[in-house]
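Anyone able to model this chain together with DQA?
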Amino acid sequence: MKILVINGPNINMLGIREPDVYGKNSYQDLKNFIWDCCQAEQVEVELYQSNHEGDIVSKIQKAYGVFDGIVINPAAYTHTSIAILDALKAVSIPAVEVHLSDVSSREPFRQISYAGLACVKTYAGLGFEGYRQAILYLKQLLNA
Ligand code: DQA
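re: yes, here you go
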């Protein structure tokens, strides 16, 4: 089982950006957390982060026929990107949406998720743990 974990813009700034919202741990810490989790679950994983919408769209397209599942935190593109939504729909790879913060209790513009419309499940407000939950959910789904 092969999973692609995609993180969108500014996730590479974890630990520096708004630590009261996103925590004090860095993107490297997040990568280590996901690697450890995937190793424990015997899941093959590739990690990808980009600040560019088109690059994320291309990465999703290239996942077709290669990955069994996608975990995606599209970050700010969650709330704006129909292109990422369409790419997820195009490849039809089961995808789980993750947000570090509880977007449902934040600003009104964060209440809409386009990417979420193409995802089988969303975890928000659990910090790093949301990625683990997403991986476990995909594992269960793909093994069913
Ligand atoms: C985020 C929430 C988004 O609204 C925000 O733009 C981000 C991170 C989260 O993980 O909580 O960059 O996706």
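The chain is about 35% helix and 20% strand.
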